[in-house]
Amino acid sequence: MEGEKGTVCVTGGAGYVASWLIMRLLDHGYSVRTTIRSNPEQKRDVAFLTSLPGASEKLQIFHADLSDPDSFDVAIKGCVGVFHVATPTPTHFNSGEPEEVVIRKAIDGTVGILRVCLNSKTVKRVVYTSSAAAVDFNYKSAEVMDESFWSDVDYIRALNSFASPYWISKMLAEKRALEFAEEHGLDLVTIIPSFVVGPFICPNLPASLQAALSMVLCKPDQYNLLLNTCMVHVDDLARAHIFLLEYPNAKGRYICSSDVITIEEMSKFLSTNYPEFQIPTVESLKGIKGHKGHALSSKKLTDSGFEFSKSAMSLSDSESSSHGSEYKFFRQTSRDRLLLEMLGSTRTGDSRSTWKVLIMDKVTVKVMSHSCKMSDITDQGISLVEELFKRREPLPSMDAIYFIQPSKENIVMFLSDMSGREPLYKTAFVFFSSPVPKELVNHIKSDTSVLPRIGAFREMNLEYFPIDSQAFTTDHEGALQELYGANAENSRKFDACLNVMATRIATVFASLKEFPHVRYRAAKASDASEVTFRDTVPTKLAAAVWNSLSKYKSIPNFPQTETCELLILDRSVDQIAPVIHEWTYDAMCHDLLDMDGNKYVLEVPSKMGGEPEKKEVILEDNDPVWLELRHAHIADASERLHDKMTNFVSKNKAAQMQSARDGGEISTRDMQKIVQALPKYKEQVEKLSLHVEIAGKINKIIRELGLRELGQLEQDLVFGDAGAKEVQLYQDESGDEAWSCNWDASPENKLRLLMIYACVYPEKFEGDKASKLMQLARLSEEDIKVVKNMQLIVGSPVTKKATSSFSLKFDNQKTKQAARKDRTGEEETWQLFRFYPMLEELIEKVSKGQLAKNEYSCMNEPSSTVQETTTKASARSSNAPVAPEKKTPHSMRSRRTATWARPNHSDDGYSSDSVLKNTSLDLRKMGKRVFVFIIGGATRSELRVCHKLTTKLGREVVLGCTSLDDPPQYITDQNKRHHPLDLNTLKGHGDSVTGLCFSNDGRSLATACADGVVRVFKLDDASSKSFKFLRINLPAGGHPVAVAFSDDASSVVVASETHFGASLYMYGEEKAKPTNESKQQSKPPLPEIKWEHHKLHEKSAVLTLVGAAATYGSADGSTVIASCSEATDIKLWHGKTGKNLGSVDTNQLKNTMAAISPNGRFIAAAAFTADVKVWEIVYSKDGSVKEVPKVMQLKGHKSAVTWLCFTSNSEQIITTSKDGSIRIWNINVRYHLDEDPKTVKVFPIPLHDSSGATLHYDRLSLSPDGKILAATHGSTLQWLCVDTGNVLDTADKAHDGQITWIAWSPKTIPMGTGQALVLATASVDKKVKLWAAPSLHST
Q1: What is the pLDDT of residue 539?
Q2: Whole-angstrom Cα distance, residue 780 to residue 771?
Q3: pLDDT of amino acid 793
Q4: How many Cβ atoms are within 10 Å of 596's Cβ, its own excluded?
Q5: What is the 3-state secondary structure (H, E, C) of 54-79?
Q6: Maximum C-alpha span of the chain
């Protein structure tokens, strides 16, 4: 019964603090013994203890009494720690028991317990629970008291309180306990709690709570205890007990107190939380007299590393906010559901193991990491986190928690883990991120060996990714490509993307138990015939969300009527917000700095005195400086950082001395140097220094790029204060009248300005005008594509009259257009802070019920009664003040801020110090939530607006989006669209995919993945939404790098890498016999090793592994496998037997790759030089390999050959080289007569970088009909016509990373109702994609 952390004893287990402490000790993995007083008259009910989670296995209850300390001997013997919480408190303080009796009982009982601990020989530390009464009652005038203070007996007696004997006894007992411990060498720590409040599990209302609630309970005799009271939440107190037991350096006394409250504040708190009771008013309490407690310092405790997590004013055990309210913001609710509702629920019932394994797939890993830290997960008893599709060690003695998507491949993997005689884990608690289809439930039920091993089976309905306290994404970074790209409506990915997006959005409402009015942007065209598929994307998503929400109405406590608002938009509502420069600290960080998400890398001095070290920091909500400044204007943030640093240094005597010595003002750099040497202030200095560095770097970039002038022009364009003429004048001093692009602006910034210009003046980009504008701006064709793609999202164009022909000079028109108007009643606080996203107006209209129905439709239109109420409410709040006369922003500040950024007096509610005013928001009176979801990505400015309007409207505004984009990312996304040849993606890989191969019939595709698994997919239909696949787990320590089929689809040869070199394995089974005289596809191979070889190339790695059926000459048709090492050797293997058939050596520095001809006759290798060597495999009459002589050499390239492939007739070789050319060679020559191979064709590689330089191809693969050559460079995939060398099609970003392998299917495979020739590509992005062959008529 010994717990993982050992056994401890808690005295007085029936009490308030002790019972809560027992619960927390069980949660922390301790085995607990506790003592309670026996009641001779009746048996005590201890169900509140025995029913605690884990109590049946780890809790023992003993009867003992402090009047007989020896009665504790049995409970304490064998314990490693003792919490002495019990105290001989009389049932009623005013029972009349003499003071000396109370004191004697307390001291004798305490010393007796300590003596038992000493005699046990096993107790390593005792934590004694004292009381603030031992510190607070004295005549000293200190405002704050710490552990050095002791109460005065005479002072306590003078109070003449009914509790005086108890207070004196606690003080004297603690003193005697510390003396005894020092005399006998006992490790004793005392904890001094202040007024203990919070929930309780013991049967009776605790005395401290009676006093705290005395105004509710009508006990005026206890009001004087609340005059000025220090308090601590019981959960924090319990955690502090455990902390002091475990903290190795704990010594002496520790005060544990988190809050101070006056009687007036208590009255207000109780009046708000218990309105049904008559709480005494603040006025009526002014006459109360008594002891006003001092503030108690917990600095010693917190300096040791302990952190308070609860508000003492929260009477519940839930996470309390800084407002002492039960209202939880969006992200907190998500976190609590994962930690408490999911992980926490597994710690009860039949679960016998305290520590568990958490298993997740790649989606749920993201869900968890966006909501919780690893420490949060381990606190819930998780000792190991694993990925579902990675090789895992069996842990049959441990329970496992599965948090997975309800997909077929996940269910198959789960069943393989838990079925059979030897499951990987003892019990499985299964939680799904979204609703489980009935067929998958039935599939699980059909496995009778698994059912008894399932401890829980629930739908969590949590499949979104919180990125902020009020924001989430659905992780669809490619939404613009998949939903708005060319031919997107005909793509299978269109529906798949929408359905997954809708499912994830619906889980947000299932998690929060909210049921929304679903509103969406309606199609814009007045004529239905003009509506494009892009116009209908929000409509289709709204319908899909509505269908998903309808399934949740059967969830317990899910509302049946609408409780909130959901507005679904796309980027067409605001094309400017994603590209305009947003001037907040947050936006500038992500726009101008090279950040990975919220990660920033800074250089810090090396501890060894060498080169500076790189340190990664995360800008997130637990950084108070970031939280305060993130939505502030960058100039405001810079000023406030300077103020903070100045204020910090002014309080430091060393810094003051340095200032006096040097004379004059200290620079920010000097300030940092001074305070960095002070360990006491290290943490504050690190935070401030980090942000000073970031702000300084941003301001430097702003100056270098001339963003001040550009930003002013951007905002003037948006608000109609600038037009074509002003854009024309934004050039260098050359006075050139055209956009000569001698601008200081970077190409990206020029493109962003043009995108804004296109939004405000779309007519300037009609026809070929856009191309001419871009050419004048010297921007590339790719940049032109960005602007055109942006315009596609807008949907149906507005018909306009024909305009005059385009002129190279701008029309200096006097009439200027505006994309939006200045906000009435608001004046920008800082220059360049004038811009606001359209989302701000839309949310306010949603809140007031003023959305135009012809523009924004509703799936579930509210009743007329609701509409009337909303209309009346909005009418009352619509008396907006008249817009003030526009003024030029100016500043009353005299310091260094540049004039372009100086603030006004006004405050828009969020841009400056108002960020701190959010704490005044009364969360108890929050209105209904407003959710906004943006297809195509949201911006930092839109996230800022949601925070601002939450305060302004008193309604939590939650922003959802497919992704949170910064301008560079958004521009990149505009340049990406779903490729029409992209057919499908094979899912399930847990790491980079390094190799792939089709079976001879094209119906099986084997992949090698760095997660240690080979997967064999069944391609029954290339358009299928999911594919069956067989997993082959390699022996421990092996990582597959390449794969090739042997004789048929039932045998797979795998090249694997280990620390000791390369290995080769053949997995297979006997070939299945055909039935009914029809040729049937063989079954997939079973994961059985038929043969294996190790260190096949000494310690060198395998670069390529290829196979071919030997059909040439006297060969017997068996498969020959060629493995090419990274050294210089290439070896041949018999596919079925594994026999080594021979080897060749390229005799060069290193190999690049090798290929074998389709008929098994030739081997060709590309190596370090420009030549290609070719060998012939000579077969004996019995079909065996006789020899492998070198027969020819392909000479003609001027630089290294990077790849080659044979034609299907084995008579030609196609090579590609770093010299920028592709060559086709005829190798069907009489080489034995010294006839050289001939070059048939030479093509230039038609792939170039942005500067026009020719790129080389990494890999080639020729279609089985010999007409289409597929080639790759990095993540780019290109198809060429073999006859002409012309480009048939290009996928610029075929994958999100390097393409590692490509291969054509040997035959056409089923594709819906037809057949298709398919190309497969593998990549480091963990994906395998299937591509259709392009038309040979493409250009």
Answers
A1: 94
A2: 9
A3: 66
A4: 9
A5: CHHHHEEEEECECCEHHHHHHHHCCC
A6: 124
